[in-house]
Specification:
Strand order of the largest sheet: 5-4-3-6-11-8-12
Number of strands: 27
Radius of gyration: 31 Å
Helix content: 25-40%
């Protein structure tokens, strides 16, 4: 096929995948910031009739009669929440206006988004009309869409009616209504509520508030909202994080508000969480909580959060949701709920937090870490209250604002959350206590560090979707382990495979995360300041469609490791286009890549595709960590021969005929047959002429047992790779033989896999298995022989040597620049 034909086939193939995943496609596009996935969404929406540009033009003219409304709405949602250009939200609004009337009541997120976009654009009359067309929208979030339509600040809404709507969730929870008092300042800074009863008895509660170069009215409003609490036994610690002297008068004004206020002035700026630790050490209260210096707390907030802790002495803390509002108290934002949990409202026991060592000292993200560490240490969950007890301010210049958009968070946020979750779940209680003045027990992203260091040098960075545990990922993990053991400085970078969409971001594989947390590997983020000698892109298909990857890396060379061809003869499943991969890698990493064969037979395939001078002088071999199977096998596993293999969804990886399948994987019960992985067996059953899985076949997935345990359970690993698919990775065979299973492969696989298996025609498989199985001594000898061959051929040092060759410019990468 020509490149354009392959691209068309790719879109068709991925469209089939997209239709089965639905929501996951739009979630992945938003999370990865992939513009390219919009093309896929347009392809699905129009069944391939229109390109993205043509569909955008059709939306402008209203000619979408033949467009699937659900997929048009998905495209609109992606464009609206990505919001990369001035035309994105106008297109999204227009597309939703056309799609929503044709949608069923579910999914509601599209109806909601249309109202949110209209309100964000000031089109309140149109928003009111949509609410009238879909009355159920007015019931969501205590009717806050209708409240925003009536917002009087900057419009002509009616103040009393608006105030009743704004106060509805507070009143429903038995709290005093909220109002906006007269005076200067923004409506947010004039929020007020009057407690009808006060609580004078009970433990002292310390409210910590950190600030740096604060604005006068928001700071005063925030402090006053704390001083107005119904819980009277309070102290307010305002910790100034070394603001310039120009702010001294304002801090003096804050200190004079009430004798319960203490202002602590730091001489060196160290970030919010270092300042909070100062306050935690100074706190006199038995209980402690936080208040951001521009937020507002309802006067019952502290009282409502303290009472559950008094009732249950083992409860580690409480947290309350909050309304999110802008300066004019508008609550709706495209893609967000108006009410959400608010990290700053966490109220907890002072001595417990001190015992744990307080907050990790970093610029961002440490509040949720302490929350979850409290839970991990005590074995109890923080109590999440139902009623909103605060209003937090949404402003474009917020410290954390650049880390979040609806459906997206900065990779540093995800990496840090992944790191501390692993720490919490794999550590005993004593290891959850921070050492005073010691290093962080988890890697802190460079973006969040109090003090940033200079550029970091790394020998190699492996770019891959490290959440997955397929053949490519298992191979890459053993390769990076080999480099680490050889003393190299090695990083891993997560690049999500947008063609395997998931609803959530997921986490790095446990094994990868453990190496990163231990300091053996560096988790390199796109905006880290690093100098990298060699970037290895672990899979070409990973960069066929890509998301954003705006990086600060100084990259010397890039290699794409290819373990499979772009397309296979007779198989309608193209994987990538070489020219597209080249262009995308250059766009992502600033360097046109070279290509490295990473499986048997790939050198000859690539030579005809990538052009002269574009292949590395060395292949990247499959290696196996010796720890995968550390012990020899003593003999067959049971009284009957056990034959095992991976299942395959690709028809080319199964024998052509039913007779051959019966020869390899008997259905008569003469041997036990076990398959691991995807339990889809439509292809072999169709070729066998059977409707149900034979009783002699056992299908096992990763949820049933580990791959190593599966391989240990089989005597013979029988794999039939059709000649058209023979360049597939040898990894599954290598793993099987390393556990002591005797591998049985077709004769044509020998040139790619090597002398580590028995090579037999299908009709000879069963007799050979029976003969070897009947002689345990000969079986054990053959198992040991093949295992030793695998461990030698696929020893880690082979990969280290290959990479060292690539790092030596004259030996591994011809015609590359030699400057450092």
């Amino acid at each position: 096929m020509t490149p354009d034909e392959v691209r068309r086939a790719l879109l068709e193939e991925y469209a089939r995948t997209a239709r089965t995943h639905g929501y996951a496609v739009e979630a992945t596009a938003i999370r990865t910031e992939s513009i390219e996935l919009r093309r896929l969404l347009a392809h699905v929406a129009t069944r391939g009739r229109l390109s993205l540009e043509q569909l955008e033009a059709a939306v402008r003219t209203g000619d979408v009669e033949r467009v699937d409304p659900t997929w048009l709405a998905r495209l609109a949602r992606v464009a609206a929440l990505q919001n990369f250009s001035p035309s994105d939200r106008p297109f999204a609004t227009a597309a939703l206006r056309l799609a929503v009337p044709r949608l069923p009541r579910e999914p509601r997120r599209f109806h909601r988004l249309l109202v949110e976009l209209l309100l964000a654009d000031g089109r309140t009359a149109e928003a009111r009309a949509v609410l009238g067309e879909h009355p159920w929208l007015t019931e969501l979030f205590d009717g806050y869409y209708a409240v925003d339509v009536e917002n009087p600040f900057g419009t002509h809404g009616e103040v009393v009616r608006w105030a009743e709507g704004f106060s509805r969730p507070f009143v429903r929870a038995g709290l005093e209504p909220v109002a906006v008092h007269d005076g200067d300042g923004t409506p947010f800074d004039r929020l007020t509520a009057e407690p009808t009863a006060l609580v004078d008895d009970g433990p002292l509660v310390t409210v910590m508030m950190t600030t740096f170069e604060p604005e006068r009215e928001p700071l005063l409003a925030a402090v006053r909202s704390v001083l107005a609490q119904s819980w009277r036994r309070l102290e307010v610690l305002v910790v100034d994080d070394a603001s310039p002297t120009a702010f001294s008068d304002l801090l003096d004004e804050v200190a004079a508000l009430d004798d319960r206020v203490r202002v602590i002035r730091l001489t060196e700026n160290g970030g919010t969480y270092r300042a909070r630790n100062v306050a935690l050490r100074e706190a006199r209260g038995e209980l402690v909580t936080n208040q951001d210096d521009d937020d507002w707390s309802h006067p019952r907030r502290v009282e409502r959060q303290v009472l559950p802790l008094l009732a249950d002495p083992e409860l580690p803390g409480t947290r309350a949701p909050a309304l999110a509002a802008d300066e004019d108290l508008r609550l709706s934002r495209p893609g967000y709920d108006p009410v959400a949990p608010h990290a700053a409202t966490l109220l907890f026991r002072t001595e417990l937090a001190r015992r744990l060592g307080g907050y990790l000292e970093m610029r961002k993200a440490a509040d949720n870490e302490l929350h979850q560490r409290l839970e991990a240490f005590t074995g109890r969950q923080v109590l999440e209250l139902d009623e909103p007890l605060a209003v937090y301010r949404i402003r474009s210049d917020s410290l954390s604002r650049g880390d979040f958009r609806a459906g997206w968070s900065h990779p540093a946020r995800r990496a840090f959350r992944d790191a501390y979750a692993h720490w919490h779940t794999t550590s005993g209680r004593s290891r959850l206590v921070l050492d005073a003045g010691g290093a962080s027990p988890v890697p802190v992203p460079e973006r969040f560090r109090v003090r940033r260091s200079g550029p970091r040098h790394l020998d190699v960075v492996h770019v891959l979707d490290w959440r997955r545990a397929g053949v490519v990922e298992r191979t890459a993990l053993d390769q990076v382990r080999a480099l680490v053991d050889a003393g190299m400085a090695v990083g891993v970078a997560q690049l999500e495979n947008v063609l395997a969409p998931t609803a959530g971001a997921g986490r790095l594989r446990r094994e990868v995360r453990a190496l990163v947390n231990a300091g053996s590997l560096v988790h390199v983020l796109p905006d880290d300041d690093v100098v990298v000698d060699l970037v290895v892109v672990g899979e070409p298909a990973l960069v066929q469609f890509v998301g954003a990857f705006a990086h600060r890396w100084d990259v010397r060379d890039v290699v794409v490791a290819a373990a499979e061809p772009p397309e296979r003869p007779g198989v309608r499943r193209p994987r990538y286009v070489v020219d597209d991969v080249d262009a995308n890698v250059e766009s992502l990493l600033g360097s046109r890549p070279l290509w490295a064969p990473a499986a048997g037979g790939m050198r000859s395939v690539l030579e005809g595709l990538v052009g002269p001078g574009r292949l590395t002088a060395v292949d990247l071999p499959v290696v196996l960590d010796p720890g995968f199977a550390p012990t020899r096998r003593r003999g067959p596993r049971s009284t009957r021969a056990v034959v095992g293999s991976h299942t395959a969804t690709d028809g080319a990886a199964w024998p052509i005929s039913g007779r051959e399948i019966r020869d390899l994987y008997p259905v008569d019960g003469s041997v036990d047959v076990r398959f691991f992985g995807d339990t889809e067996t439509d292809t072999p059953l169709r070729r066998l002429g059977m409707r149900r899985t034979p009783p002699a076949w056992l299908l096992q997935g990763a949820g049933d047992l580990s791959l190593a345990d599966f391989l240990h359970s089989v005597d013979f690993y029988v794999s039939w790779v059709d000649v058209d698919a023979r360049s597939a990775s040898a990894r599954p065979v290598v793993e099987a033989v390393a556990t002591g299973a005797v591998a049985v492969l077709p004769p044509h696989a020998r040139e790619h896999v090597g002398d580590v298996a028995e090579y037999l025609e299908p009709e000879a498989v069963a007799p050979s298995i029976m003969a070897l199985r009947s002689d345990p001594r000969r079986y054990r000898s053959r198992s040991d022989e093949l295992r030793e061959a695998v461990l030698v051929r696929h020893a880690p040092h082979h990969y280290v040597s290959a990479v060292q060759g690539l790092l030596r410019t004259d030996a591994g990468i011809p015609n590359r620049r030699s400057d450092g």
